[in-house]
Amino acid sequence: MSNSPVSNDSIAPSSPEPEVKRDQSNWILRSLKGPTQFLSFWAAIALPFVHLPLLTQGLGDPDVTLVFFLLLAANVFALYVGHGYKQE
Questions:
Q1: Amino acid 43: pLDDT
Q2: Which stretches of sequence are listed as region Disordered (predicted)?
Q3: What is the pTM (predicted TM-score) of this model?
Q4: Which residues have a Cβ under 8 Å from the Cβ of 83 and sit 6 or more positions away?
């Protein structure tokens, strides 16, 4: 026993509350992962069919060109997010 003026008894143990919140947030992320990958996977398959009418119309109009590139970016993002769908 030490005679130090400061004892460790005054320090309360940390509450488990932050760990519970972390577990809940991890559970939410895990529960959203499957549906998000599912939607992204199928969006990546469907989006090229939306490109076809834009390409047949031609990309001469700046608005059509912008929409085409926005759809292309959305397709790349959907491919990235949905690439792990149904993989063990």
A1: 93
A2: 1-22
A3: 0.64
A4: 41
